[in-house]
Specification:
5 helices, 295 residues, Immunoglobulin-like, alpha+beta, five-stranded mixed beta sheet
Length: 295
């Protein structure tokens, strides 16, 4: 009886704790790529749950049907040869499950590697996202602005992130908009995303990259196209230009708040694209002062 009440108390406590939890971010998608990933996860969970239910159901049936009975001491069970039908079932069903999950996974992988469905006819917003110890730099080449540790994006428009790193390998991840992808120092990787719903989301580096990894995060705000254009105009009017000296200072290891600049570091420290690749940071002396616009 004591064990019964202990078990009941644990179950009630677990349910109360789960009721107070926020939704898991990867299962709370706000964009088409994240929706594809969430659907794949739910399909996998449902498939595994079906397997677990069937296996435990068969276990209960076998335990009841073939439990010990009062037979005479000289009783011998009948000799049964292998059953080809049963063997085909116990081998064939797992193979079919693996094939099914493989097809779902491959299809979803190809889907999230391309422009989001429904956005094929739109011009994407290109953002160069580069990491350093332990911060994120976002360059908007067409808008001619740059931000540090925060990202503003328009909704209902495809986003093309070009990822690379000024330090160790990192992984760019906005759970509610899509999957993660590596950012490396000698090449650019491309990630296609889109946001359907305005809101504030969390982004982070999901690949361990040293002692400052835990705080290597950034804020994401999705807004209407009109609000985004207004923000771009405001930055271009009020923010001071980023300089090479200032950018070299930003690359030093450490944590920073949100910073905003006009211009981008791509002008003097381009991304490692093309045949050459790699970063070249030959520091030049400059007497030009640099200031940043804080938010």
């Amino acid at each position: 009886m004591k064990m019964k009440w202990t078990f009941l108390g644990l179950m009630i406590g677990l349910l109360a704790m789960l009721a107070g939890c926020e939704p898991v971010m990867v299962l709370d998608p706000k964009g088409p790529q994240a929706q594809t990933i969430a659907d794949t996860i739910w399909i996998s969970i449902a498939t595994m749950a079906f397997v677990v239910v069937v296996v435990f159901g068969m276990l209960a049936y076998i335990l009841v049907k073939y439990r010990a009975s009062k037979q005479s001491e000289d009783y011998e069970p009948p000799h049964i040869e292998g059953n080809s039908i049963v063997e085909a079932i116990i081998v064939g069903i797992p193979v079919l499950i693996i094939v099914f999950l493989s097809i779902v996974t491959v299809k979803s992988t190809y889907a999230v590697e391309t422009t989001p469905k429904g956005y094929e006819d739109q011009k994407p917003l290109v953002v160069y996202a580069s990491s350093s110890d332990w911060k994120w730099h976002f360059s908007y080449p067409e808008e001619n602005i740059e931000t540090v540790n925060y990202l503003y994006i328009p909704t209902d428009r495809p986003l093309e992130f070009r990822l690379y790193s000024y330090g160790p390998i990192t992984s760019f991840w906005i759970p509610q908009l899509g999957g993660q992808k590596y950012a490396m120092s000698d090449m650019v990787t491309t990630l296609h995303l889109a946001a359907d719903v305005p809101g504030e989301y969390m982004g982070r580096n999901s690949n361990f990259s040293g002692k400052g990894f835990a705080e290597n995060i950034f804020e994401v705000e999705a807004m209407s196209a009109k609000e985004f254009d207004k923000w771009v105009e405001e930055v271009q009017e009020k923010a001071t230009p980023i300089t090479e000296d200032k950018f070299e200072e930003l690359l030093e290891p450490g944590h920073l708040g949100r910073l905003t600049f006009s211009g981008t570091h791509l002008e003097f420290s381009p991304a490692p694209e093309g045949h050459e690749g790699g970063h070249h940071h030959e520091k030049e002396t400059s007497d030009e002062p640099s200031h940043e616009h804080h938010e």
